[in-house]
Amino acid sequence: MNLLTNLECGYCNKKLDAGKIWNLCPECGKPLLAGYDLNRADLETTKNNLSKREPNLWRYHELLPVQDSRFRLSLGEGFTPLIHAQRLGKQVGSNSLFIKDEGLNPTGSFKARGLCMAVSRAKELGIRDLSIPSAGNAAGALCAYASLGGLSAHVFMPNDVPRPFIAECRALGGHITLVDGLISDCGAKAAEEAGKFKRFDVSTLKEPYRIEGKKTMGYEIAEQMNWELPDVIIYPTGGGTGLVGMWKAFFEMSEMGWISSKKPRMVSVQSEGCAPIVKSFHDEKEFAEPWLDAMTIADGLRVPSAIGDFLILRALQESQGTAIAVSDEELLAGATTIGHTEGIFACPEGGATLAAFMRLRENGWIKSDETVVLFNTGSGHKYYHLWDK
Amino acid sequence: MNLLTNLECGYCNKKLDAGKIWNLCPECGKPLLAGYDLNRADLETTKNNLSKREPNLWRYHELLPVQDSRFRLSLGEGFTPLIHAQRLGKQVGSNSLFIKDEGLNPTGSFKARGLCMAVSRAKELGIRDLSIPSAGNAAGALCAYASLGGLSAHVFMPNDVPRPFIAECRALGGHITLVDGLISDCGAKAAEEAGKFKRFDVSTLKEPYRIEGKKTMGYEIAEQMNWELPDVIIYPTGGGTGLVGMWKAFFEMSEMGWISSKKPRMVSVQSEGCAPIVKSFHDEKEFAEPWLDAMTIADGLRVPSAIGDFLILRALQESQGTAIAVSDEELLAGATTIGHTEGIFACPEGGATLAAFMRLRENGWIKSDETVVLFNTGSGHKYYHLWDK
Fold first, then answer.
1. Residues 6+ apart with CB under 8 A from A224
2. How many CB pairs under 8 A join A and B?
3. From CA A19, how far away is CA A302, in angstroms rounded?
4. Looking at the complex, does the CB of residue A75 fall below 8 Å from at least one CB of chain B?
């Protein structure tokens, strides 16, 4: 049983055949989203059987785009622990604080979810050569799943990317290009070569399936919290696929009757050195202006312009959430505090969620008895230079 | 229900009260092992309910030493994926090759299992200050669980340890001492300070509970293979706790009737630059001579003298297994091959298991249709310098 029905543009709602290969919407150039037949009676059985399934994201396979189980590549991605952060909670004034630790994914970050799905589906659709611009973690994840599936991976990273990211891609057999510039420059270079050499571009939200992998974070939070969603989710936002994906998952689960209609307030946290979503959220814009001179130690947040900006902003608005920028000092201190109280070596982006929590707790936007989930999107190991003094 | 009955010396069989704090056997100075009441009828129910439990090592809590669930510290350790390595198997002549990927543990290595258990039990017994000598991974794991439990961790590493290991301990709040020498010198320094400052020494096999955490690798392989053990397990051997722990687990499961009496042939792999177990196995000795001038890029294998040597050698002999040394070039090439075919960024010690497999396959000791499990004991991220050219 697999319920994928069609693709639909997230902006102009054009419908497309999900059996064909697509990048962006051919009408308006915006991201495509996968649709499913969610009105099947047997989905209640699926929900009831989940607890016996393997602890990875394929436990939700009926709601994922890969049709044939032979193409479901797996390295144990997803179903990461949701840690009840009691020592940390006490320190920062929360009775119900949780950390979703995405550092336990293959390749050490949440990027494994999206690339697992994109590569699996690409292989199912007969694609052989894949291409990606990346701040580091997505590149490693693409190389891993491409190697596992026997596909080729071409990765484009800024030339100041920390060296562990390059070494990882090398160990995983990727073809590496370092670009003098930001991730947007990497995107341009990757796109140019993709056209020339007929590679499939798996950039953030420029194909329809990475978001399907990322949405499983939403399914997992629901399952791990016994189908009662938290009051607030704080998510470090670069390209924003995870936030948009979770928001999509909550609607799917509502439609299937797996959860009540109560949904969390979604919070985007960015760095003060690159905060396009924060600015446009507070300016009440539909799209975000590209951020000039983007600069932050949290490489995953150094995304000056996100193609899914309107989807992120829509989720923040619909959920009555907010967006907040924190300084590099605050986010690094946040990661260290998580390490010292909960034993999780968080990446700087993960640290940003704690910094945001502390600001929002202080100004009363979050109450002490509200249930809050912070996303540590990856392990700190590949950013060890930040603690290497 | 918890079935811990007593501690028993692995060498002289002296029995001790498990409710008290012990390091080595007070009679003969050898490691202590935990004993359980395995003849309980309700253990069959435990086995049948496992599939519904959380995917971490506490799913086997009845067979673990921590009595009170409040002391079961957890960051999502254990129940790591067992990957059916089909592309790699085809390349190296195996129809049934598996990789147990311990890199997905908290802190990125199998050390999380042992230290999770040692710290949890130490906390239950009222201990506050912990001390460890380490080649790197055990130090990070100790710091993580000590922070989570609110205990203090003092870690002693060789001063040539790769810098990511130091950064990790710093981010996790450990007290770090770098020692000019090998891990044995770190052990001496740690012991000296432990005496002076009344810290509890959680060195490999010098307290009874790290091995209990490590033995869960054996329980997991059995559960993940539907209670039919593989023909061969290849394990990179430094201190050897994991190998000894799995061997103990297999006997416990046999006694409970969870598995048949058929057990795997256990293989220790070491580096040619430090192979005390390999040498003494082939010399048919009961104990291993300390290795002089130990040198290998696989830091976890740079253990010139293991206090559990006789337990390792006994398991190899009883299982009709073997021991084999590979070169640093072979083990590094092994890790890269795993990365290029299966998408796992393996640590050099994990790479050694593939190098050993290839040798044993070539000389016919392993047949093409035998089921073999390779242990990738950690992720390559903290060893990225080996791929940083």
1. A82
2. 155
3. 34
4. yes
Q: Do A106 and B55 touch (CB under 8 A)?
A: no
pLDDT digits (tens, 9 = 90+) for B239-274: 999 999 999 999 999 999 999 989 999 999 999 999
For an interface test with B, which of A71, A91, A344, A386 has the most B Cβ atoms less than 10 Å from its Cβ?
A344
Confirm or reject contact between B349 and chain A (CB < 8 A).
no
Distance from CA of A318 to the nearest CA of B (A): 33
Q: State the Cα angle at B37 between B35 and B39, rounded to 5°.
A: 140
pLDDT value of position A261: 86
- Considering only CA atoms, which of B358, B336, B355 is closest in space to residue B346? B336
3-class secondary structure, B347: coil
Which pLDDT belongs to residue A313?
A: 98
Chain B residues near residue A170 by CB distance under 8 angstroms = 387
pTM: predicted TM-score of the whole model, two decimal places: 0.97
The CA-based diameter of chain A, rounded to the nearest angstrom, is: 58
B56 chain-A contacts, CB cut-off 8 A:
81
CA distances from B22 to B139, B166, B205, B352 (A): 21, 29, 11, 34
Element at B141 (helix H, strand E): helix B137-149
In this complex, is the C-beta atom of A56 within 8 Å of any C-beta atom belonging to chain B? yes
Supply the ipTM of this predicted assembly.
0.97
Chain-centre distance for alpha carbon B299 = 14
pLDDT per residue as tens digits for the range B145-187: 999 999 999 999 999 999 999 999 999 999 999 999 988 899 9
Q: How many residues does chain B have?
A: 389
- In the chain, the amino acid numbered B60 is Y
Q: Could you tell me the two tokens for A364?
A: 């009363």
Q: Tokens for A339?
A: 């390490």
Pick A230 or A41 by higher pLDDT. A230
Q: How far is C-alpha B206 from the chain's CA centre?
A: 14
Inter-chain CB proximity B339 and A171 less than 8 Å:
yes
Please identify which residue in the block is written with the tokens 């082939």: B282
Structure tokens at B81: 């994926």
pLDDT for the residue numbered A2: 77
Cα→Cα distances A176→A16, A179, A239, B146, Å:
33, 10, 21, 39
Distance from CA of B380 to the nearest CA of A (A): 8
Which residue of A81, A106, A345 is in closest CB contact with B76? A81
Contact A74 B52 (CB under 8 A): no
Q: What per-residue confidence (pLDDT) applies to A312? A: 98
DSSP string, A247-308: HHHHHHHHHHTSS-S--PEEEEEEETTB-HHHHHHHTT-SSPPPPTT---S-GGG--S--TT
Phi then psi dihedrals of residue A64, to 5 deg: -125, 160
A289 contacts: CB under 8 Å, gap ≥ 6 = A276, A279, A280
User: Are the beta carbons of B186 and B156 closer than 8 angstroms?
Assistant: yes
Closest in B52, B144, B346 to A343, CB measured: B144
What is the rounded CA–CA span in Å between residue B319 and residue B322?
9
Cα dihedral sign for A372, A375, A381, A382? negative
Q: Nearest Cβ partner of B104 from A104, A144, A146? A: A104
